[in-house]
């Protein structure tokens, strides 16, 4: 592995962005940063099943993953990569409007650092913090997440619209594989969300989750509900 002037090996980075402009901009920044090196980069407009699109990346050399993605896919992307490579810290830079519940869920998925800033120095510093396991979240994002938790309580931010849909399909008797195919998400993602739903409901079996659903004891507010 190459080393910088100080003799320390540079941090290996995998860059995942949503368009060519971001790809060119982030690559230029990383390549101009002495303590970082690009190991792989790609434009990602959707979350591929099983990370099949990233087989050419040498993940053994990647030490930090950085994403610049819209809110429409960033949560699934964070969850998918953390499940596949939990040992690699992940930085998410969100390039579209977001809400407090979005941020809470991404933090729960396991992102090491979050920012809405598109400033190169901010993203690079977030990557360093993630690499050294310090972690960081933008102050504005942190305050929004705190307001969300205080207003809704931690449980109501624990399940999203996808979780609701999966729970309803579980209640209708569909298998994990069927749910995966019906919703167009990976089987591993489906299993992960079902485990999350069970933890939220404080149940251990499908029959218990189905019973709660059938008894109309859904503890969730309507999607995007916020108290007055």
Automatic annotation (TrEMBL):
<dbReference type="InterPro" id="IPR016032">
    <property type="entry name" value="Sig_transdc_resp-reg_C-effctor"/>
</dbReference>
<dbReference type="InterPro" id="IPR036388">
    <property type="entry name" value="WH-like_DNA-bd_sf"/>
</dbReference>
<dbReference type="Pfam" id="PF00196">
    <property type="entry name" value="GerE"/>
</dbReference>
<feature type="domain" description="HTH luxR-type">
    <location>
        <begin position="155"/>
        <end position="217"/>
    </location>
</feature>
<dbReference type="GO" id="GO:0006355">
    <property type="term" value="P:regulation of DNA-templated transcription"/>
</dbReference>
<dbReference type="GO" id="GO:0003677">
    <property type="term" value="F:DNA binding"/>
</dbReference>
<protein>
    <recommendedName>
        <fullName>HTH luxR-type domain-containing protein</fullName>
    </recommendedName>
</protein>
<dbReference type="InterPro" id="IPR000792">
    <property type="entry name" value="Tscrpt_reg_LuxR_C"/>
</dbReference>
